[in-house]
Amino acid sequence: MANGAVLRFVLVVLTGMALAGCGRLVQPDVKADAAALRAGDYELDPTHAVLLWKVNHLGYSKYVGRFNEFDASLSFDPENPAAAEVSVIVKTASIDVNFPKFEEDLRGGSWFNSEEFPEAVFESTSVSLDESGSGTITGDFTLLGVTKPVTFDVTFNGGARNLLNQKYTVGFEVNGMIKRSEFGMTTLLPAVGDEVELEMHAEFVRD
């Protein structure tokens, strides 16, 4: 192997080792025990959050979309997890299906009617988490001016101080289902499914 090639090989190896080392340096010591979660008020980190929905499309597939603008807050005390408070506000006009023309239809009166009802809102009424961090969250969900109680499955992924921004961070995954007809959204039933799966992955931060 020529000297130049040897030098390039060594540089590649050293660069890879350095990058691997950097990854280990910023990896936080995440604790997945819900009892270890620090008490306090948390706000959503919008750069590390996603809200997806899925609905059956003509029996062929699940049609998947997302909302690009939403906010959430969390108030939690590990000594009294049942008293946790969670609030989520979704801007329905931010719907994204990677199809701009259809997105305009979805914002219209036959679907989300975003001009009259610009927000969908969830306000928790009770939270249940076991020692492993799995549980449920129940609350009132408002869509199209209609409010119904819903229950979602929730998984606490863990919490630790983020070494990149020095903020204490917790991560959650939430999954559940609503029936859109219960909120008055009946367009194209049953060709487009009634049951809508909701899925949120989010990080919350506090100082």
Polypeptide structure, described:
The protein is α+β, with helices and mostly antiparallel strands. It folds into 2 domains: 1-30; 32-206, Lipid/polyisoprenoid-binding, YceI-like (Lipocalin, Beta Barrel), CATH 2.40.128.110. Helices cover 15% and strands 51% of the residues. It has helices spanning 3-26, 100-107; strands at 40-57, 61-67, 70-76, 85-91, 95-96, 119-129, 134-143, 146-161, 168-179, 192-206. Strands 1-3-4-6-7-8-9-10 form an 8-stranded antiparallel barrel. Strand 8 (146-161) and strand 9 (168-179) form a beta hairpin. The longest helix has 24 residues, at 3-26. It is globular, with a radius of gyration of 22 Å. The model has no long low-confidence stretch (mean pLDDT 88).
Question: What key attributes describe this structure?
Answer:
about 210 residues; alpha+beta; 2 domains; globular
What spatial order of strands do you see in the largest sheet?
Answer: 1-3-4-6-7-8-9-10
Kindly report the average pLDDT value. 88
Strand fraction equals over 45%
CATH-level-2 architecture of the largest domain: Beta Barrel
Terminal residue distance:
54 Å
CATH topology of the largest domain, what is it called?
Lipocalin
Number of domains: 2
Q: Can you give the helix content as a percent range?
A: 10-25%
Morphology call = globular
Largest sheet: 8 strands, antiparallel, barrel
